Amino acid sequence: MEDYTSEIKNRIENEPYAQIFKIKVEELREGYSKVTMKATKDFDNMFSITQGGAIFSLMDFAFAAAVNSYKGIAVAVNVNINYIKSAVAGDILTAEASELSRGNKTSAYLISVKNDKGELIASSQALAYIKQPEKIKKI
């Protein structure tokens, strides 16, 4: 399993979009991931706070890592997010995705994003469709 989660970690961290945010997969196991990024001024919106889209992207990468931590292919079909508190440049943001349930065709996740002070920035619920259990192409 270690080799497979390492492959998923590498795939995510090497995605061009993830590299814009300098996304790092800190922890990954079946049904769980912890992913981090540092908020920078480049992610600020017009109010000098971190753009919601950047926070959503971090959350989405945590979801992608966790849901694809099994040997298969799963894609998001529904994601909702609640923004609780603003993040600002300099914050280290951590998204944790935890599986709530997994069936033959769908999987449900709870994802939280916190800053380096442990404050909740956003929470999300996500549903994935399991396209191909136990199948993934090698890099």
Description:
- The chain is an alpha+beta fold and 139 residues long.
- It has a single domain, classed as Roll (Thiol Ester Dehydrase, Chain A), CATH 3.10.129.10.
- It has helices at 2-13, 16-21, 52-67, and strands at 24-29, 32-38, 72-83, 92-102, 106-114, 120-133.
- The longest helix is centred in the middle third of the chain and has 16 residues, at 52-67.
- It is globular, with a radius of gyration of 15 Å.
- The model has no long low-confidence stretch (mean pLDDT 93).
- Span of the ends, CA to CA: 16 Å
- Under the CATH scheme, the architecture is Roll
Largest sheet: 6 strands, antiparallel
Q: Note the beta-strand portion.
A: 35-45%
- CATH top level assignment: Alpha Beta
Q: Name the assembly state.
A: single chain
Order of neighbouring strands in the sheet with most strands:
1-2-4-5-6-3
Any idea what the shape is? globular
Q: Indicate how many domains the architecture comprises.
A: 1
Proportion of helical residues: 10-25%
Count of runs of 4 or more consecutive helical residues? 3
What is the CATH third-level topology name?
A: Thiol Ester Dehydrase, Chain A
Ranges where pLDDT stays below 50 over 5 or more residues in a row are none
Order of helices and strands: HHEEHEEEE
Structural class: alpha+beta
- Mean pLDDT, nearest integer? 93
Report the C-alpha radius of gyration, rounded.
15 Å
